[in-house]
Q: What sequence folds into this?
């Protein structure tokens, strides 16, 4: 018997992507889809959700979201905690927003300007930990999961193997990301009219994914991480292309670097390490749960450039949510993906 699922915020891009993936998961049935302005509309009005027939968006209330086995919350930051408070401890709740990602109360309040609601288990299965294990080992049986930020995923997966193997200096990390407009949300102006430009945003150390990335990477080093992080909205709908650079430690070779990525990711189905002169392409990961990664070394500057690409709506959000859910429930990790 399929598990009963609710999506809170199902009319947004992340919520609709969750609905698309749930439709293909044999163990799940979407019972309730909540929305705000779209209440009364039908899911089938979205081209990718036509097979949902007459299922309608309903208002987000305590009554509408209770009584399910699994609840996905796909709301803007600082909006998830209230919804979570309505739900019983035995319900699997997966937050695709930012409310429960950060461990530090101070960092949350600094970057989000709201009271820290707590910390849930982090839903990045491939994240390597200080002891060499992976975050997936912690997800079995979880009832509360915080899905990583999409940009944080692209940057973390690029730097983590290099830090785990002590190959780079950590006090001068630089990440510049080209981000699809869907990352700004369905209501954003860039998604409501023609968009033909590139626009940097949250520049100068204020982007909310910075403390999340540092939290992910800090256990892998004894050094003080310094990260310059700059996202740029570009005229594509889906995708993130992250260009990440760092200074290499002395005597590190290209072979050392390639071996580090292979050691950490060779068994990972959803991370594709490209060797040689092959580089990631956002088109190659579109609509998939994959992250492509490759690197190049600038011998003149002694720096490495690691390029990572993923679909911000799948691997960056909904796919990571389903992957983590599978692990929590003891399903095949790849089910529905």
A:
């Amino acid at each position: 018997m399929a598990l009963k699922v609710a999506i809170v915020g199902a009319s947004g891009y992340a919520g609709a992507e969750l609905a698309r993936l749930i439709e293909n998961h044999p163990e799940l049935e979407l019972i309730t889809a909540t929305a705000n302005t779209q209440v009364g509309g039908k899911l089938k009005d979205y081209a990718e959700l036509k097979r949902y027939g007459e299922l309608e968006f309903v208002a987000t209330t305590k009554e509408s979201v209770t009584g399910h086995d699994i609840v996905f919350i796909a709301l803007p930051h600082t909006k998830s905690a209230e919804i979570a408070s309505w739900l019983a401890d035995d319900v699997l709740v997966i937050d695709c927003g930012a409310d429960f990602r950060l461990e530090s109360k101070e960092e949350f309040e600094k970057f989000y300007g709201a009271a820290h609601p707590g910390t849930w288990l982090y839903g990045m299965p491939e994240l390597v930990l200080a002891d060499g294990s992976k975050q997936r080992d912690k997800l079995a049986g979880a009832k509360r999961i915080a899905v990583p930020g999409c940009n944080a995923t692209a940057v973390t997966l690029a730097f983590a193997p290099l830090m785990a193997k002590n190959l780079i200096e950590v006090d001068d990390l630089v990440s510049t990301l080209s981000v699809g407009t869907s990352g700004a949300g369905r209501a954003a102006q860039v998604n409501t009219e023609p968009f033909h430009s590139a626009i940097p945003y949250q520049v100068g150390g204020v982007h909310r994914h910075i403390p999340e990335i540092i939290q992910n990477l800090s256990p892998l080093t004894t050094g003080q991480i310094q990260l310059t992080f700059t996202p740029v909205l570009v005229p594509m709908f889906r995708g993130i292309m992250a260009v990440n650079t760092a200074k290499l430690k002395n005597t590190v070779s290209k072979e050392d670097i390639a071996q580090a990525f292979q050691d950490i990711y060779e068994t990972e189905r959803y991370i594709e390490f490209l060797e040689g002169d092959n580089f990631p392409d956002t088109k190659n990961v579109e609509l998939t749960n994959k992250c492509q990664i490759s690197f190049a070394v600038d011998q003149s500057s002694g720096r490495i450039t690691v390029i990572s690409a993923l679909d911000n709506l799948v691997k960056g959000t909904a796919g990571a949510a389903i992957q983590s859910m599978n692990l929590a429930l003891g399903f095949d990790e790849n089910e529905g993906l």
Notes: The chain has nine helices and 14 strands. The CA atoms of residues 12 and 187 lie 8 Å apart. The domain at 150-312 is CATH 3.30.360.10 (Dihydrodipicolinate Reductase; domain 2).
